[in-house]
Write a structure and sequence with these properties.
Elements: H1 2-15, H2 26-40, E1 45-48, H3 55-64, E2 73-77, H4 83-91, E3 92-93, E4 105-106, H5 108-111, E5 116-120, H6 127-139, E6 141-143, E7 150-152, E8 156-161, H7 165-170, H8 176-182
Parallel strand pairs: 1-8, 2-5, 5-8
Antiparallel strand pairs: 3-4, 6-7
Length: about 180
Amino acid sequence: KKEEVSELKHRLGEQIKLDNMVGRCPRMQDLIAKLPAIAASKSSVLFTGESGTGKELIAYALHAHSPRNHAPFVVVNCSSLSGGILESEIFGHVKGAFTHAYFDKPGRFERANGGTVFLDEIGEMSIATQVKLLGVLERGRFERVGSNDTVTVDVRVVAATNRNLEEAVQGGQFREDLYYRLRV
């Protein structure tokens, strides 16, 4: 089993080589050229662009070429989950935290420990969830929904959106401190 997983990871890594990536516009070519340096850093990353421009593919390439490539790459689509459900998915929850919480459930950050979390469409995230995310970026810690126990993780956050987050910050729909933490 381990050998099979290792072989599959190797094959996938071969497909994600930077010279296999295509982009005709100068901005995309510039991004592809900078990707090795970005991948080597520990900083959070924020990609912006229209839907269908390959933000998730770029995020995976960033992970695949980073020192974290041995650990999980976990995707969260923030636009497909409502506020409370998104918070539970990202941070997990404990048994009894809410109706139908029949068991403890680790969140995506715990599952990605040592690796990368890709938060797609982060511009759709509620302010309350943004506050908890900021705690992860600043301290690497959070509490599961319904718990007072602190969970510590080591994850790199890569986020993407098709929204103009500067306008969202000015309009009060996105936290300014989180915006600046993400766009390192």
